[in-house]
Design goal:
The complex is a heteropentamer, with two copies of chain A (about 220 residues), two copies of chain B (about 220 residues) and one copy of chain C (about 240 residues).
Chain A lengths: L1 H12 L7 H17 L3 H22 L6 H5 L2 H7 L4 H30 L7 H25 L7 H28 L4 H30 L1
Chain B lengths: L2 H4 L11 E11 L2 E12 L3 E5 L6 H8 L7 E5 L5 E4 L11 H11 L5 H7 L15 H15 L3 E5 L7 H16 L3 E5 L10 E4 L13 H6 L1
Parallel strand pairs in B: 3-7, 3-8, 5-6, 6-7
Antiparallel strand pairs in B: 1-2, 1-4
Helix pairs in contact in B: 3-4, 3-5, 4-5
Chain C lengths: L8 H32 L14 H28 L2 H33 L7 H22 L3 H29 L19 H44 L1
The chains are: A mainly alpha (about 220), B alpha/beta (about 220), C mainly alpha (about 240).
The complex binds protoporphyrin IX containing FE, adenosine-5'-triphosphate (2 copies) and magnesium ion (2 copies).
């Protein structure tokens, strides 16, 4: 297990492993949207929570296909399935690795980008909190999606298609938290729901994902 | 070479265990390719699977490895006892030879890396990235992986591809040592390994008559 | 004795080894004088207060950030045309330095913007195009990092640098077209303008010179490191085959 | 040449070829943004041009890595490079194929999504026109980026990092056209600039891309 | 089998052409692996490259194919005359066998698909998706590709991998026919093809002494 985690992290760090690229993409979205939408600070401030969450979500999305596809192509996945560790565990560990490489950094840099989008000052704390609560769900759900398309060559696009709808609840509640926080309203309800979704996903989805992997292997 | 050196601490080994296959039918892409395949392997024995291209060797091995559903018949062998070595070796190009082996050793809870390296004479390549290996060297690494799994039943699909004569010899020696410890090996190959003691199974007679398709789905609709 | 001789790594190492101490000395001198003078011996601006002193970091950094990319463009061209490894490695060495300057300009700018414009960031054309420049730096570095074979990486990054420069310019004008902002125009451009009095102007120029020196020094050092690293890799690979 | 075009289109149509996925992604972005930003029609209408263009851009982006990577992995690219057709032509054809599979459909469905984002009525025509003019540039620039990273395994994320900055001018002018069109202002200038960028990219980038492919092959 | 059948309309063939390699040094990963390699092939001749794993066969072939820079020495052969067949066969899994071959035939402006199919006895598999082929069948398809290129110089890296005896025979026959039309073939292999008339080049003596590395960069830096 730890061996697997260490290997995945190491692979992410090595050349072409794509660590930090998620961040860059996040940054890019935060820059492109104003370029498209226009510079008025007021408008930007209003849409900032939504855009930031969508950006984080997409950044997560783009790195999903690495979770299983690489291991599938070089046969590691078959061997892991045959190894004396539960496949559910493998899935969970890989999702964790993905979060450490993507979700966590995203959460940490988010305030910087919020600056670019003129997010109202009191929104920052909620932004970080909501991301910290929400991104684990993104990674786990993403792992599930990746497990579904693991057989498909370069299934990146298909993957995003499958996963995005599953991201909707997380997105809505996450963005809601930030929006209310920024407006100074109370955020208890959406925050609780966000946490609930994450818990549920982390608790249950690994089993579904493992099942999907098994199907794809035979 | 001295067996204990690279024997994975005798992990999971035990005399007398057996692999029994009865009246097995295997299908690929909904088409039954082989049927009525049967054999029994006592521990310490090896089976060489032969047959022309496309007869169904790979399909058979994948089925034995549990990577494909069984179309018909029975396979019985102790749980968690087998490992499968196909063309895809489960190696990470950016990791070094040792890192690759260590990973699999840890996953299987054995610590036989050094021994495995020596067995396949990869010692001096140990710190080379797998990407920087030649085809044959990669293959040798893939075979060394078998040793660190500590499994008793080895299923190998054309293991000697792109190995030179010397390496083939090394491979045969490795298999012999494995058998000597009560292991079992099933090897699909086109060339003559010079592994006389092994039984030989030619699949040609088991070729399925295309007429009948075996797996549930087709049956239901035939 | 043509300048190209210094494209030979050995020659370059010798020359740079000789030049470095002087460069370091000059850098420390200029920056020391310029910054101290700027920070402590200039009056506060009547409307900006002491925040005006950020200018001594902000302007030179921003300037060098842009020039660094220009230098990378030149060295990339040299690599493509004449295949001098040192040139390629110099480009590689310059990128992180340029990025750092970019970030310094961004941060100081933001710090300055807060008192001046009442906001950390505004989508002013100059700021925007500068941010895009930062993105180009990121992409360039990421490409270097992603490709193993050094020569391949050098070629590809050079191509990226060429094409990227064109698009960076395009973006600059696109952004101008897209929004006309509140950032200072070339109010301090080298023909000195009336609105900035000499008391600010002289130390600023010294700081600019200092930043140029600093850039050259850092690039020299990093290039030497790159060369050593490259040589080390060559030796290691060689003993691997042995 | 035509043989290559036909093959690429056929591959795109076959299972896992990812035709239409770009569309779906476009749709998803158009749906997610309102979810994140909130339903106020006024706000949405104001940001619609920008969001639609950013969405089209990302949809285009996600399918880029298929342009060369697949052919590289199975060795086709080496063989094509050795074949008696100019590599520049190969690149151009592949970019064209990508546009036919991605850019063109995006342009056609854009009005439908504009509806979701309540784009003001008079903006529709300009939206279609600007996309029709702009998307070819996206495909060609993308092909260039794909050529740069063809050697990198699963370089999707790196690819987007390299390509997005190059998309900036196209995005700005494209969105500008729609914004002004929707506001009923005159759009001559941005439209002309958009066209100019596309022309330039189509004319020059194939050579740069071919050079990059050559470098990656040796 | 009758040569004309699958001869690509004699496209680009011409007697007397030659491939000359002089004092060639090839490098991989910045390290010279082979040096002083030299040979000359008159049209109609074949060269079999031998050597232990990792001696540098693949590197040599890739260099000859122009997929790697030459570290030193000269390679001279007519332009646009060669094609290279490695393990990656340039086949699309989702396309059928015929579609795959037709594509390459059109790219090279030859129309020898049917002939090629027959030559490698793929005729009855022609409408099967490449994904549904067995390892050996895939390989045969990859070899059939050589025929539709209509190139005169064939560079082949371990072409007989996972081919059964019959198929190897077919392959040799195909090469013979190619030579008979004035073609040239360079084959790196570990097994004995039974292609007696071919010259054999063992690379072992050309192994580069690690001491000196050839490519410009190291020289400048070591
Ligand atoms: C994040 C915010 C900012 C960024 C990214 C930024 C960026 C830049 C850039 C790129 C330059 C051009 C340097 C050159 O062309 O040589 C520049 C120059 C300058 N900036 Fe800023 N700036 C920012 C904020 C500010 C603020 C708030 C002020 C003060 C009101 C300011 C005052 C100046 C001045 C006076 C110059 C010199 C003008 C010239 O001579 O070209 N900047 N800045
Ligand atoms: N989807 C499919 N539909 C029909 N037949 C298929 C399908 N996929 C594979 N086959 C056939 O199944 C047979 C068995 O393939 P398999 O790979 O097991 O052969 P093999 O013995 O391993 O051959 P080789 O020695 O070349 O590896 C082959 O003849 C192949 O053509
Ligand atoms: N990046 C590298 N650095 C150092 N040596 C390398 C690198 N990449 C490959 N090599 C070595 O180059 C040698 C030549 O490899 P090559 O693939 O040409 O051998 P080969 O003759 O094809 O072997 P095989 O018969 O196994 O295919 C091998 O010994 C390999 O270890
Ligand atoms: Mg097989
Ligand atoms: Mg080889």
């Amino acid at each position: 297990m730890t061996a697997l985690l260490i290997r995945d992290l190491r692979l992410a760090m090595r050349a072409g492993g794509g660590f930090g690229l998620g961040l860059a993409f996040f940054l890019l979205v935060a820059v492109l949207v104003p370029l498209g939408v226009g510079p008025e600070a007021a408008t930007l401030g209003r849409i900032a929570p939504g855009i930031l969450w969508v950006g984080a979500l997409l950044a997560c999305l783009l790195s999903l296909d690495r979770i299983f596809a690489l291991d599938y192509e070089d046969g590691s996945l078959e061997l892991l399935a045959a190894a004396p560790i539960p496949l559910e565990g493998v899935v969970a560990v890989k999702a964790l690795a993905h979060w450490l490489v993507t979700g966590l950094p995203l959460t940490l840099v988010a305030p910087g980008l919020a600056l670019l989008l003129n997010l109202p000052a009191q929104g920052y704390g909620w932004l970080v909190l909501s991301l910290a609560l929400g991104t684990p769900a993104l990674s786990v759900i993403g792992a599930f999606g990746a497990a579904l398309v693991v057989g498909v060559k370069r299934g990146g696009l298909l993957l995003s298609l499958l996963v995005l709808p599953l991201y909707v609840p997380t997105l809505i509640f996450g963005a809601e938290v930030v929006k209310r926080g920024a407006a100074g309203l109370e955020v208890g309800a959406p925050l609780a729901l966000l946490a609930a979704i994450t818990m549920g996903a982390v608790a249950l989805l690994p089993f579904a994902a493992a099942a999907a992997v098994r199907v794809n292997l035979r | 070479m001295p067996a204990p050196l690279f024997a994975p601490a005798y992990f999971g080994y035990g005399w007398g265990m057996e692999m029994v296959v009865q009246d097995l039918a295997v299908a690929r892409g909904g088409v039954t390719v082989l049927e009525g395949v049967g054999f029994a392997l006592a521990s310490g024995r090896a089976l060489i699977v032969r047959g022309p291209n496309g007869v169904g060797k790979t399909t058979l091995l994948r089925t034995l490895a549990g990577l494909q559903p069984v179309a018909a018949g029975r396979i019985s062998l102790p749980p968690d006892s087998l490992t499968y070595a196909a063309h895809a070796d489960g190696l990470k190009a950016v990791l070094t030879v040792r890192e690759n082996l260590t990973f699999w050793a840890e996953i299987h809870g054995t610590g036989a890396v050094e021994g495995a390296l020596r067995a396949m004479n990869m010692a001096q390549l140990a710190d080379r990235r797998a990407a920087d290996l030649s085809a044959g060297q990669k293959r040798r690494l893939g075979l060394a992986r078998l040793l660190v799994t500590g499994r008793t039943v080895w299923l190998m699909d054309e293991p000697t591809v792109s190995l030179d004569v010397a390496s083939v010899g090394m491979f045969v020696a490795m298999v012999r040592a494995h058998l000597a410890q009560g292991g079992v090996a099933v090897i699909a190959t086109h060339i003559d390994l010079g592994l006389e003691e092994a039984e030989v199974l030619d699949l040609t007679p088991f070729k399925a008559r295309p007429s009948l398709a075996r797996d549930g789905f087709d049956e239901a609709f035939a | 004795m043509s300048i190209w001789e210094y494209a030979n790594p050995k020659k370059f190492m010798q020359a740079s080894a000789w030049a470095l101490p002087w460069m370091i000395g000059l850098t420390v001198l200029c920056l020391g004088v310029g910054l101290v003078w700027g920070f402590f011996f200039t009056p506060d601006d009547y409307k900006q207060g002491s925040t005006v002193k950020i200018i001594y970091l902000h302007v030179p950094a921003a300037m060098m950030a842009i020039n660094a990319w220009g230098m990378m463009l030149v060295t990339s061209l040299i690599w493509i045309v004449r295949r001098h490894h040192v040139s390629a490695l110099a480009a590689k060495a310059a990128a992180p330095v340029g990025l750092t300057f970019t970030l310094i300009a961004l941060v100081t700018g933001a710090l300055w913007g807060q008192p001046m414009w009442g906001t950390w960031w505004a989508w002013d054309p100059r700021l925007t195009s500068f941010l895009i420049l930062a993105l180009f730096y990121f992409g360039y570095l990421a490409l270097w990092a992603a490709i193993e074979d050094p020569d391949t990486a050098a070629d590809l990054t050079s191509i990226l640098c060429l094409v990227g420069s064109v698009f960076a310019l395009l973006s600059r004008y696109a952004v101008n077209f897209w929004n006309q902002g509140l950032h200072q125009g070339a109010s301090l451009s080298l023909d000195k303008k009336e609105n900035v009095s000499d008391v600010f102007w002289v130390p600023l120029v010294i700081c600019m010179v200092g930043f140029v020196m600093l850039f050259v020094t850092l690039v020299l050092m990093r290039t030497r490191t790159e060369i050593r690293a490259r040589r080390l890799a060559a030796l290691l690979a060689r003993e691997r085959v042995a």
